[in-house]
Design a protein that fits this description.
Layout: E1 6-10, H1 17-28, E2 31-33, H2 43-48, H3 50-76, E3 83-85, H4 90-99, H5 102-116, E4 124-129, H6 132-142, H7 152-172, E5 178-182, H8 192-210
Parallel strand pairs: 1-3, 1-4, 2-3, 4-5
Helix pairs in contact: 3-4, 3-5, 4-5, 4-7
EC number: 2.7.1.113
GO molecular function: ATP binding; deoxyguanosine kinase activity
Keywords: ATP-binding, Kinase, Nucleotide-binding, Transferase
């Protein structure tokens, strides 16, 4: 499975992960895996009261992403079917560490380590980032009811957390390519030339990393 492309698209809320993952799947004929968001019954309550609902919210996401990784492993990668996902499992720890109380996080981290043991990890990662203004504008444009109560300070700190975790990841895993794209400069949804540029870079890295 090592030479089968498994691409993960990551970045903070509203940066365009699902849109880019769908474009990659269409361009390269990969199987698209999308994270479950709106189906999480705790998410609306979480944005209203993070302290009360953070543990339930994060456990729901963790369990569903674990099941998706199992499916990726057994139904696709073992059959040599390339996959692109609009998330990386590391996001679980980013959000959990930010929202959970320490005693809850310690339990969560132990469960996380148990679940991901032996499961496939992406061999190419795309990291999308953008300014707070860009993220807020895109969140407002897509109009999800449960996101209307997002605190801009929470979102800004989330961007900082993503930068820190990806800088650490790149140092600890230099063999895994990480492509960074700035969402303030590139609008791959509205501008075809931007999408073409991104897809060309991805194609180049895929060929180089897995050849």
């Amino acid at each position: 499975m090592r030479n089968v492309p498994f691409v993960a698209v990551e970045g903070p809320i509203g940066v365009g992960k699902t849109s880019l993952a769908a474009a990659i799947a269409k361009q390269f004929h990969y199987h698209l895996v999308k994270e479950i968001v709106e189906e999480n019954p705790f998410l609306g309550k979480f944005y209203e009261n993070m302290e009360e609902w953070s543990f339930q919210t994060e456990m729901f996401f963790l369990c569903h992403r674990y099941k998706q990784l199992e499916e990726i492993q057994h139904r696709f990668l073992q059959q040599k079917v390339p996959v692109v996902a609009d998330y990386h499992m590391m996001k679980n720890l980013i959000f959990a560490k930010k929202t959970l109380k320490d005693h809850h996080y310690q339990k969560y981290a132990k469960i996380y380590d148990i679940l991901i043991d032996g499961l496939p990890q992406p061999n190419i990662i795309i990291y999308l980032h953008a300014s707070l203004d860009t993220l807020l504008a895109r969140i407002q444009k897509r109009g999800r009811d449960f996101e209307k109560n997002i605190d801009p300070l929470y979102l800004q700190q989330l961007c900082t957390d993503y930068e820190e975790i990806f800088s650490l990841f790149e140092r600890e895993h230099p063999h895994i390519p990480v492509l960074r794209f700035n969402g303030d400069q590139l609008d791959f949804v509205q501008r075809k030339e931007d999408l073409h540029y991104i897809l060309e870079r991805i194609n180049h890295v895929i060929k180089g990393a897995l050849s």
